[in-house]
Write a structure and sequence with these properties.
homodimer, about 15% strand, alpha/beta, seven-stranded parallel sheet, five-stranded parallel sheet, about 35% helix
């Protein structure tokens, strides 16, 4: 392959089998191991044409600017909100991601969090483990049946969540920039209106500046003291300080959160709450899905190297 | 109503609104409050024709024999395994339960437990709360996608679980006394064969002597170290000592358990395990479902009192 001599910049560790295969095929420079990252970038600037990263790491404008010959940023993950897309666009740098292969696992995790919140699974688990059941019953919970589920962002993942919710006899609504053709779920052009209508609000939109704090304090207040909020999208899409404050105050009923601002840091106020289920960004963190994501990254790099069309350009 | 003077024996407390409505319409004798239960039964034996109980309490042969004029046992719950059905049958005593109204909530809980087990939700929650995420990622889990789910007992609840599982792109199989007409899930006439085929085994059959330890040690061993067992049926349907032993030894992968032998007592060996989710028999424990169950109990007692056909005879 003509590019073997050209270094591939790897910004962060990947799923190990993917990284191993990348390193078997290319001369990979591990940026996170460099004592001086700037010097490392300067050393490869003359012939580095490919950078590989993941959604949690991305690549910023400063790094892109130090690589004048960069042609491709191949991202491990569907979310490209940590990649400076404007910088890539202005330079004509192609960006690829890993859509579709992670949709179903992320949607499964959303349902796990939704069911845990509505049926109070973490509370029930602690009730049994702490020996409280012997002293009397736990009491009743809400039901998911006939409840209204509002989905923020009816893209691939949002639609996969909706399909699952339909099997649970829920009523479905969604918010997004526009009404989707051929979808008969109830459309809201205002997120506060969706949250006021919904019993459960699920964030499934992309991250990035366009959706920053889209799930606003007003939306969470409209969801209310019996409402459930689930986030498998990005921490940035919700007003996290408001979310924490309303949960602590009992003005939001429950939450299931896989994503946070400033991961892996999580607001410690959440640790003491019984009515939240917390996950360390596990949406796509399954063996088969990570393998499939890795395959797409490798396919995109190989397509670029061979001059073929990219498998999954953004 | 002609029966107002005739005492209704209530064996255990019910959902409070149901009990209040029963006590508003009938002369209810609360057996659990009697200092001497035997004396209480003798005192009402001459004219007690109705007993009301719930699935956790039932009614045994000795109690039935002390009530020679008993005509109806109205049960709050679908499971009648704690009612001595032979004793009722031989005396011509009608038994009613509360089917259908709880099916969907119980199936929802089954999926909550299944997803929690496969995606390691309790482990993830503890991982975040204990501050471990800041030190590195949690690691990957299994996926539910394309996995094989085996359902033990494809009755109302089993079928509702299967419908939900289908929305998660799983492959479905089932065990039962006979192949169901019009069902295209894979049928197994042997539970060990089903467990060997399945990645996830969900018990959804009735309790009672016919299904005692149906999910045998051999079935759990066939499910194996990567297998997941979910039980929303009855503790009696699984070999509980074998279940605990295999979970502790890592020879069964994970479990989600809503029911146990000898509730509310739970084997304390389970309390320390990370790979189990425990619930205090919450299958139907939601506000709307308990209200609907209570309505059926009251309807059955009223139908009996008016000489009309019973709403939901067993």
């Amino acid at each position: 392959m003509s590019t073997v001599g050209s270094p591939v910049l790897l910004l962060a560790p990947l799923y190990p089998p993917t990284q191993a295969e990348l390193e078997a095929g290319y001369r990979v420079v591990r940026l996170w191991e460099a004592a001086d990252a700037g010097a490392q970038l300067d050393a490869i600037a003359a012939d580095c044409r490919v950078a590989v990263t993941h959604s949690g790491r991305g690549i910023d404008r400063a790094t892109i600017e130090r690589l004048p010959r960069l042609e491709l940023v191949a991202n491990f993950g569907v979310g490209v909100d940590a990649i400076d897309l404007d910088a890539c666009r202005s330079r004509g740098i192609a960006v690829t991601n890993t859509p579709d292969v992670l949709t179903e696992d992320v949607a499964d995790l959303a349902l796990a969090l939704l069911l845990a919140a509505v049926r109070r699974i973490p509370q029930g688990d602690r009730f049994v483990r702490e020996g409280r059941w012997a002293k009397g019953p736990m009491g009743l919970t809400q039901s998911l049946q006939r409840r209204k589920v509002g989905i923020v962002g009816l893209g691939r993942i949002g639609a996969a969540i909706a399909r699952r919710c339909a099997a649970f006899n829920t009523e479905l609504g969604y918010f997004g920039p526009r009404r989707k053709a051929g979808v008969d779920y109830r459309y809201f052009d205002d997120i506060v209106a969706l949250a006021g209508w919904a019993d459960v609000l699920v964030a499934a939109c992309p991250g990035g500046p366009d959706t920053a704090k889209l799930v606003s304090r007003a939306a969470l207040e409209a969801l209310g003291a019996e409402g459930v909020f689930v986030n498998i999208a990005r921490g940035s899409v919700v007003d996290q300080p408001a979310l924490v404050e309303l949960l602590v105050a009992g003005r939001l009923g429950a939450a299931g959160l896989d994503v946070f601002d400033d991961e892996p840091n999580v607001p410690p106020e959440l640790f003491a709450l019984e009515n939240v289920t917390l996950q360390p960004h596990q949406g796509s963190a399954t063996h088969p899905t990570r393998a499939a994501m890795g395959r797409l990254v490798l396919d995109n790099v190989a397509a670029w190297a061979a001059g073929r069309p990219l498998a999954t350009p953004v």
